[in-house]
Design a protein that fits this description.
Blueprint lengths: L1 E6 L3 H14 L3 E7 L2 H11 L3 E5 L7 H8 L5 E6 L5 H6 L4 E4 L4 H33 L7 E5 L4 E5 L3 E7 L2 E6 L4 E4 L4 H8 L3 E5 L2 E4 L3 E6 L3 E5 L4 E4 L4 H8 L1
Parallel strand pairs: 1-2, 1-3, 3-4, 4-5
Antiparallel strand pairs: 6-7, 8-9, 8-12, 9-10, 11-12, 13-14, 14-15
Helix pairs in contact: 2-3, 5-6
């Protein structure tokens, strides 16, 4: 569910957008609306929405000024306007999308889908950050586990048992010392900082290696890490100095 707010100086536009969302984007629940931008700012602060549909051209205060008055905001924004010249400014405000009135249903559905995807990744990032915080707070890391989100389950794996991680498009493959491969739906870069405090080395754009499983650094057509299980992991040219330093 996406909690949404609509701010538009024309009440008819608010009603029309609500009807479109109810029919074509039921995952969006409108928790409030306002035809006055100042009331809209208060509504945003009180409701803490995931998404704000924001009209740009309003007589008292335009949509850009609404965002400026908030100082900072952690919700997604879809600008809605009858005037096409605001597109570049909308981009500068990191809007998820920019819809022209009258609203095209397919464009609305695409914008909501993008919002849903961004919120999903934002939640994953927050979970990882919270986990990282708790891991750093603990002094004894020998029994630390991380949560690996796969398509069907969340696996809890001891960090000390992870040999290496490998990027596979937007997924991450975890290889354990027991020969198991676990597929995570989170990309590799999300694990980079988390695992660096445990001695993992980002030796390549696609590889993260637990240095305790590294047997040697080979020089053969470039550099390669030889692991105790005989796996050979490439070292990118711009990472070789970092790898050498980490292994000393």
């Amino acid at each position: 569910m996406i909690r949404g707010i609509i701010i538009d100086d024309e009440p008819n536009n608010i009603t029309n957008l609500q009807r479109l969302l109810e029919k074509y984007c039921p995952e969006v629940i409108i928790v409030g609306s306002s035809s006055d931008p100042n009331n809209g700012i208060k509504l945003i602060k009180d409701s803490q929405p995931d998404l704000v549909f924001l009209d740009i051209h309003m007589p008292e205060k335009d949509g850009f000024q609404v965002l400026k008055d908030l100082d900072s905001y952690d919700f997604e924004v879809i600008f809605v306007t009858a005037f096409s010249q605001y597109g570049i400014q909308a981009i500068k405000f990191s809007a998820i999308d920019y819809l022209l009135k009258p609203i095209d249903i397919e464009e609305l559905k695409k914008a909501v889908a993008k919002t849903s995807n961004r919120l999903k990744h934002k939640n994953q990032n927050l979970q990882l950050q919270n986990l990282l915080h708790h891991l750093k707070e603990s002094n004894n890391n020998s029994d630390h586990r991380i949560a690996i989100s796969s398509l069907k389950e969340t696996r809890f794996v001891y960090v000390k048992n992870i040999v290496r991680c490998e990027s596979e498009n937007s997924y991450t493959l975890f290889f354990t010392d027991e020969g198991e491969t676990i597929i995570s739906t989170v990309p590799l870069y999300e694990y980079d900082e988390m695992l660096s405090i445990y001695g993992f080395i980002r030796c390549h754009q696609s590889h993260l290696v637990n240095k305790k499983y590294v047997r040697s650094l080979l020089k053969e057509d470039g550099y390669t890490l030889l692991l105790y299980n005989q796996n050979r992991i490439p070292v990118s040219r711009n990472k070789k100095d970092l790898v050498k330093k980490a292994l000393v």
